[in-house]
Design brief:
This protein has about 375 residues and is an alpha+beta fold. It contains 10 helices and 7 strands. About 60% of the residues lie in helices and about 10% in strands. The strands form 2 sheets. It has a 5-stranded mixed beta sheet. Strands 1-3 form a two-stranded antiparallel ribbon.
Amino acid sequence: MSRSEKTNTNKKEQGKLKLYSTISSNLITYIIVMTVLAMMFAFVTYGFTVYQITENRFTSDEAIFIFLCFFLGLYMLLMVLFCVIIGNQLSKPLKLLRNAIENFNVTNMEHIEYQGPKEFMDMVDSFNNLSDRLRDIENENRRLADEKNKMLADISHDLKTPITVISGYARALHDGLIKEDEINDYLNIIDQKSSTVADLINQFYEYSKLEHPEYNFELTKLNIAEFLREFLVDKIDELTVNGFELEVNFPDNEVGYILGNEMQLRRVFENLIANTVAHTPKGTLMSFDMGCTGEKVLIRYEDNGGGISDEVADRIFDPFVVSDPSRNKSGSGLGLSIAKKIVEYHGGTIVLERFAGKTQTSYLITLPLYEENNDEEEDNS
């Protein structure tokens, strides 16, 4: 338990122990004590004046005057004392709060320690909780700023190399430095690097679009099993030509309806496969499994391409994370980040499963099943 949590716990326990100690209860207590003292003094003064009257030292009018003077004087004295005590009880917490607000520092804010009337203890606890929330917001803003700066640095790094190649080769062609039989090779390289730049820009655009809080896309009723079968049938020839194997394990009668967007879900599985193609050797086996359980559809995507290091695995869904620290291999490091955001937009989750001593990479995607009963109930109503 952190220090702030302990402080809040102690404050709550103190509040429970001193539940009776409120401003209103203190006022009532002080008034009762003041009235009792005044009445006691009144009885003493009354007895004194009666004795003086019986001894013929005071007349009745003089005795009444003396009684009233002493009684009212004491009462006023008690009232002043009462106001001083209440003023101290009010000024102390207010001064603490004022000083805390004037010296407020999000990065280094100590909790206010106070014991007294419950109303002020609640105010102090609320202030401490507010300072904790502001500190969390500040830390989150700093994290986002650091992530943004890193993102810009990574974008610059990823764009710099292909643009430099394009610029250098184009200048060489323009200056006639390339042999006639090598021109087509140079043009092909320029075309490839141009495609790489376009792909990087498109991926960053997609990521930025998904990050925007107002971005949304239409979800429709979708048979996820049928969708995946059609998608993988389209991919199998492409993967085979490139030297990869694909295995699909779907039960023949498996049907799972979700609310989804075909284009966005296609991007999820495209990015998963592209990540395998970019970072595993030819001959790698990719496999898809799907099943429905309870209110969810489970999709597991695996490859036996050697697995992912623990260092990369912990940040695999962060933007611009690639398996090669030098970033010499292809890939922007945005594909899995985009996939994660799309899955989460569908109300699902995607996680990297960890298997000790295993060499495969396994992703588990869960998506909420579409409840047909909801439509039926709406139609009946």
